Amino acid sequence: DGRPPGVADAAPGAASGPAGRTAARDARGTPPEKEPVRFHVVPRKGWDTQLQGLGCSARNTINWRGHRGVLPAPPHPCWLLPASDDVALQIARRQEELRARGWLLFTSSAEVVHSLGDKAALWRFARERGLDEHLPQHFEEPEEAAYPCILKESGGDFGRGCHIVESQENVRRVTGARGGGCSLRPDWVLQELVPGREELSVSLLVDRGVVLEAAGTAYEFDVEAYVWPRVRTLNTAPQDIPAEELAVMSSFLEGYTGICNFNYKRVPGGGVRIFEINTRIGGDLVTDVPAPAARAFFERLAALGQHAHA
């Protein structure tokens, strides 16, 4: 029926809204005690209880961010999975060292991770491959923009460094530009604001460009224009992902290996506008995807064996 594996079949009839979120959390159960850890999700994001409750021996207790110090060797072979885009890039850059210390990795080259996870690099990547029609309109200079629009730092995540701006002056204040000029630095992205109260988040398990697992979540917010998480969520529900939308996402993932997360909206007349691709585990997978589907991600990864494909 065109549905990606691991979405609708994982939790038929799952409840939606606040009650659904409570049910999804409850389904994770009581964290088991003293099981050998199979998956370490880093750095700490406050997800340890939810991950333990999945029942697949996943933890979120190590606050390693990849820049300083050496990550200790695990006591037994264990998967190391990123919970931030920056750590995803550091794992890709240091994969030879980390594998030598006994960590199991599911990652790509640093170039591939950067081209998808960095918001400015993503726009260049899409334009070079003729995929920019699936992204919001991009503005090179503030005077070209149709306001209001979205201004965001290229390396921000979880809503950090993202703003709704109403004018060139607003852009200048946010970016700290001085003088009469208002040219954007390369670490900022200015793009179309796509209105709509519904936004979708899709987590994917991808092996060399092939999607192995997918789980979709639809979020309904209380306003048309917002920056998450500075908005009130009215409803959260599992979402079937149409084959044509999955095909669009797959077109960005040639050569990619890892877990990633797409955030996007559907637009009138068909098509999608992808806001970002996070090259990491997202909060949707940990807290909002029904437990059976979330657990399927980790178990499918474990079944791939001990060799990641770069």
UniProtKB/TrEMBL annotation:
Source organism, top-level taxon: Eukaryota
Residues covered by region (Disordered): 1-35
GO molecular function, one term: ATP binding
Keyword Transport: no
Domain ATP-grasp: residue ranges: 110-306
SUPFAM superfamilies membership: Glutathione synthetase ATP-binding domain-like
Presence of keyword Signal: no
Signal peptide positions on this chain: none
Composition skew (Low complexity), residue ranges: 1-22
Protein name, per record: ATP-grasp domain-containing protein
Record-linked Gene3D superfamilies: ATP-grasp fold, B domain
InterPro entries: ATP-grasp
Keywords: ATP-binding, Nucleotide-binding
Chain intervals with Basic and acidic residues compositional bias: 23-35
